[in-house]
Write a structure and sequence with these properties.
The structure holds two protein chains of two kinds. Chain A is an alpha+beta fold. Chain A folds into two domains: about 100 residues, Ubiquitin-like (UB roll) (Roll); about 120 residues, Fumarate Reductase Iron-sulfur Protein, Chain B, domain 2 (Orthogonal Bundle). Chain A is built from eight helices and eleven strands. The longest helix of chain A is centred in the C-terminal third of the chain and has 16 residues. Chain B has a domain of about 80 residues. Chain B is built from five helices and no strands. The longest helix of chain B is centred in the N-terminal third of the chain and has 28 residues. Classes of the chains: A alpha+beta, B mainly alpha. Chains A and B meet through α5, α7 and α8 of A and α1, α2 and α4 of B.
């Protein structure tokens, strides 16, 4: 089957972005990322970011037919309108080239929290011969894909807002460590109080990390602490 | 310009979830109600022009136009109020597990209040 990809393109020096059409031959189960790679074979100037191809690295976040998704786990047949798929770069970040955006604002915000990266999980631990017992842990689910920034109306319009991912990591860090000093930036200007609870971040999060819910958890704890009821 | 651009971004609801749509409705209804306050001040000010002027204005609102205007106003008020209550609860970190049910309840409440108000208005019209 033939699919029509309409890709929003912009490169440094262009006055404004424009949409370019690529026609690719693929079946309905083909991912948008694979379709973009097919298009790239015919046009090596098309720029997009990707790595793992299976929804783990978070590199290929894009706006696909108006909604933020990971291109690698989005099938053409699930999102196409007719046979057309419109692909745009994530919003809320400066575009570097075509579909590649500069996510450094998210990483800078995360660095202000120095987030924990592991959380304990339910289950029996184990022991290695001659070593201390092991506590089962997992990496935090956040992929740092930037989808939540693009989905969030505040992150798209308020430059100094720390953003959903960074604030959710702050919330997790407080839950895991109980250390309020780690989240002081998240409680300041551009922090949790700037969130207006549109909660689109949680709806769009491809990892089910629930950034909006975690922000509200942190707010709840901060409120309780301010009112003298929390540690 | 920056404010208008931000507003346009906030109102970009195509393809968005019920949560986002509710956020946009909460914002839009707040702005419209603030605008209504100004209209209301102007409307009240016609009293200064005398009884005749004020009665003429009231006459306009006795017609179908007034009914539509009042129904819209009540819908805006009830939506803004109900979604505001939902927002207050969720934004305080409460009942997060039931936030979808709360949101559905807020919409149902607002629509029920609007429907009841329209029914009352129609029955006395």
């Amino acid at each position: 089957m033939k699919w029509r990809l309409l890709v929003k393109r912009w490169k440094e020096g262009w006055e404004k972005p424009r949409y370019q059409e690529y026609v690719v031959e693929a079946d309905a189960d083909t991912s948008v990322l694979d379709a973009l790679e097919k298009a790239w074979l015919g046009d090596n100037t098309l720029v997009f970011e990707h790595a793992c191809h299976h929804g783990v690295c978070g590199a290929c976040g894009m706006v696909i037919n108006g909604v933020e998704r990971l291109a690698c786990i989005t099938r053409l047949g699930d999102v196409a309108v007719g046979n057309t798929v419109v692909v745009e770069p994530l919003r809320g970040f400066p575009v570097i080239s075509d579909l590649a955006v500069d996510k450094s604002r998210m990483f800078r915000a995360s660095a202000r929290v120095s987030p924990e990266t592991l959380e304990p999980v339910e289950g029996e631990g184990g022991e290695l011969p001659g070593r201390a017992s092991l506590r089962p842990e997992k990496l935090l689910s956040c992929l740092e894909c930037g989808i939540c920034y693009s989905a969030c109306p505040i992150a798209r319009t308020m430059e100094d807002y720390m953003g959903p991912a960074a604030l959710a990591l702050a919330s997790k860090t407080l839950s895991l460590t109980g250390d309020w000093s780690r989240v002081s930036d998240a409680l300041g200007r551009g922090g949790v109080w700037s969130c207006h609870a549109a909660l689109e971040c949680s709806v769009r999060c491809p990892a089910g990390f629930d950034p909006g819910g975690l922000i509200m958890v942190l707010r709840g704890k901060a409120l309780k602490r301010m009112l003298g009821g929390g540690r | 310009m920056k404010v208008l651009r931000a507003l346009a971004e906030w109102m970009r609801v195509k393809g968005r979830s019920a949560e986002y749509l509710s956020f946009a409705v909460r914002r839009a209804s707040g702005l419209l109600l603030a605008a209504y306050l100004v209209v209301h001040m102007v409307d009240i000010s016609t009293l200064l022009l005398g009884e005749e002027a004020y009665n003429a204005l009231l006459e306009v609102f006795h017609g179908p136009l007034g009914l539509v205007f009042d129904a819209t106003l009540i819908a805006l008020l009830s939506l803004h109020g109900a979604l505001g209550l939902y927002s207050m609860i969720v934004e305080a970190g409460l009942a997060l597990r039931w936030r979808r049910a709360l949101l559905a309840l807020a919409w149902a409440g607002a629509l029920a209040v609007t429907a009841a108000a329209v029914w009352v208005m129609l029955s006395v019209w």
